[in-house]
Here is the input.
Amino acid sequence: MKAMILTLALLLPVDAAPDWFQEVNIPQSAPLTQISPTKLTYSMTWNGRLKAGGFDILFGEKDPRYPKHFLVRSHGGSTGWAHALYPFKFNYTAFLNPKTLRPILFVGTETERKKVDTLHFNFNSRGVTGTEKKIRKGVTKTKNKSFAYPHSLDLFSGLLQIRSMPLENGDTVVMPFHPVATPYLAKIKVLGRETHMGRACIKLDIGLEKIDDDLSLKHYKKLKTSTVWLSDDTWRVPVEIKAKVFVGDVRIFLTKHESL
Here is the structure.
């Protein structure tokens, strides 16, 4: 029933669709800018002092089991004191079309102590469908989920979409996407250019709102503000992310960039 309601929402006249539909300014089906196989390593700190975790992102890693896909993998989690308080780890894999870099399938696991979430989402021209399986106290519950926005992007193709935009100073990019298990509307403002951590960067302000089942927007309380420095070169990869979240200030910065 929910999938039918969401599908019907997309068939409504334009003036009956949510206002944010008119704000979206990313191409729906154009190929995304190719990226050479590369590995990015990030470290995360809390309140600028204490190391809280880290993760890797691998674009274009070869796997003989999936010769017809461009793979993006990411894995990591909390470390040190943060791990003692919040022992979280994750492992995500995105299967992208090698010609367009648009998503076909996103799978992943998230673990916090004995809590395990397993994600499996399919992407096509009509939107996203999939499941979120949660294990709590030995009990497994599976929830079917859908996001009926055409040509939706996942976590990694969303990043590839941003790096594919012109990003002129003063531009605002409005992008709906389904990064992990919930859809969001991202508004990215280009604040300007500057040298950051010894690298020429594009400075971006990132705002997120949740997209509800009826496609209305809901305030995302966990993220207050977020600033991203994207390298101003052919790579256009995140050099640093600073975010004010519900638990304090989080800093994520690139520590290593190497070819695969």
